[in-house]
């Protein structure tokens, strides 16, 4: 079975050619899927009966189903989606004043083993297909349609490591970016990686104008290796080289994400070291107040510490922001909703 939502327009044209179908068939199918929001092959009236029969037999257009929906006081909505094999993934909707952003998961569970993150509590079960990622955006669009809104921004920052599922994530980006599909602008799409250096080099050459975020979380290898296993595979000098390469090749600046963990990476000495590490790069730093996870020993830095860290970077000439928090009251961080859901089952 081929799921139609897995394919970019180009990939679909290639696949349909094997059935003797012309490229315009793929465009017609895209229009049925994304514009007319068809739910069955039967309604695809401009496609021959014969090919519709083939579609029935060899293709599917199945989408994940929404099983839990929580809403936070700040408007964040959290969805737990059930995939065809029963696996559960999280998706969040964050209403900004500039539009509606969806946080998409890229894998079921995660193997990166960042010690502060709830996602890693479940080891990677499998990669998500491109269609399952598209399905997350479509599920949110369905909910938003009632308010005449639609998803305008996508961040691949849910459960999973996008560069550990590179090909599917790339197809997903090309699908949602396609003007014939959801037409989400490249600059409205952000991929976040824990720092898989090979992936960053590869991503530099895709010719995309999307945003790249790097989960840095520490100013040196010593601290980084304590909290992020990936830092042992790719030390900071290699990571920084890859980011410079990315910035030179794409002319896009990366965002460094930096979670502030109490007494781990939040001292002024850390802020100074961070400033020295990234001085002169195009990049900007987004400080993230940590959302505590019940099973894990980390605590959020207090407000005063967060602001002192922020001020120190600012004074050192680093572009820096503090992330607006969403959905704190519904545990909307990485892996937290799924973990909670399983808890109920236990
Ligand atoms: N694997 C990718 C994308 C998923 S995580 C990556 O590591 O970038 C998305 C971001 O959320 C990362 O920066 C991650 O470190 C951060 N994060 C994970 N758990 C968090 C928590 N409890 N509170 C705040 N941010 C968290």
Task: Describe the fold and architecture.
- The chain has 346 residues and is an alpha/beta fold.
- 37% of the residues lie in helices and 18% in strands.
- The chain has twelve helices and 14 strands.
- It has helices at 9-17, 23-35, 49-58, 130-145, 166-177, 197-204, 221-227, 230-233, 236-250, 268-278, 303-315, 336-345; strands spanning 2-3, 59-60, 65-71, 77-82, 88-96, 99-103, 107-108, 126-127, 153-156, 189-193, 211-215, 255-260, 284-289, 320-322.
- The chain has a ten-stranded mixed sheet with strand order 3-4-5-6-9-10-11-12-13-14, covered by helices on one side.
- The longest helix has 16 residues, at 130-145.
- The chain is elongated and about 70 Å long.
- The two termini are 34 Å apart.
- S-adenosyl-L-homocysteine (SAH) is lined by residues 112, 114, 116-118, 157, 161, 192-194, 215, 257, 259, 288, 290-291, 293, 333-334.
- Residues 112, 114, 116-118, 157, 161, 192-194, 215, 257, 259, 288, 290-291, 293, 333-334 line the site of S-adenosyl-L-homocysteine.
């Amino acid at each position: 079975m081929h799921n139609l939502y897995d394919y970019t327009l180009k990939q679909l044209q290639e696949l349909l050619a094997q059935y003797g179908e012309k490229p315009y068939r793929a465009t017609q199918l895209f229009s049925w899927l994304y514009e007319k929001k068809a739910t069955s092959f039967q309604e695809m009236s401009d496609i021959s009966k014969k090919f519709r029969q083939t579609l029935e037999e060899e293709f599917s257009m199945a989408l994940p189903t929404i099983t839990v929906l929580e809403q936070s006081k700040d408007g964040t909505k959290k969805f737990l989606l059930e995939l065809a094999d029963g696996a559960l993934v999280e998706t969040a909707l964050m209403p900004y004043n500039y539009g509606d952003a969806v946080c998409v998961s890229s894998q079921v569970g995660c193997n990166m083993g960042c010690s502060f993150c709830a996602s890693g509590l479940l080891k990677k079960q499998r990669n998500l297909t491109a269609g399952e990622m598209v399905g997350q955006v479509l599920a949110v669009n369905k909910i938003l349609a009632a308010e005449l809104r639609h998803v305008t921004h996508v961040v691949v920052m849910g459960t999973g490591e996008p560069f550990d599922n590179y090909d599917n994530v790339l197809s997903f980006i090309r699908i949602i970016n396609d003007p014939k599909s959801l037409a989400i602008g490249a600059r409205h799409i952000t991929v976040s990686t824990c720092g898989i250096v090979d992936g960053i080099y590869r991503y530099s050459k895709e010719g995309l104008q999307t945003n790249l975020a790097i989960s840095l979380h520490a100013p040196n290898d010593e601290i980084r290796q304590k909290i992020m296993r990936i830092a042992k595979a790719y030390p900071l000098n290699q990571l920084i080289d890859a980011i410079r390469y990315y910035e030179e090749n794409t002319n896009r600046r990366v965002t460094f994400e930096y979670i502030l963990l109490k007494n781990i990476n939040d001292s002024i000495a850390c802020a100074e070291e961070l400033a020295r590490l990234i001085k002169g790069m195009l990049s900007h730093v987004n400080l993230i107040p940590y959302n505590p996870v019940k099973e894990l020993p980390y605590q959020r830095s207090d407000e005063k510490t967060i602001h002192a860290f922020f001020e120190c970077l600012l004074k050192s000439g680093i572009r820096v922001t503090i992330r607006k928090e969403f959905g704190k009251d519904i545990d909307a961080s990485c892996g937290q909703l799924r973990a909670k859901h399983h808890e109920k089952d236990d």
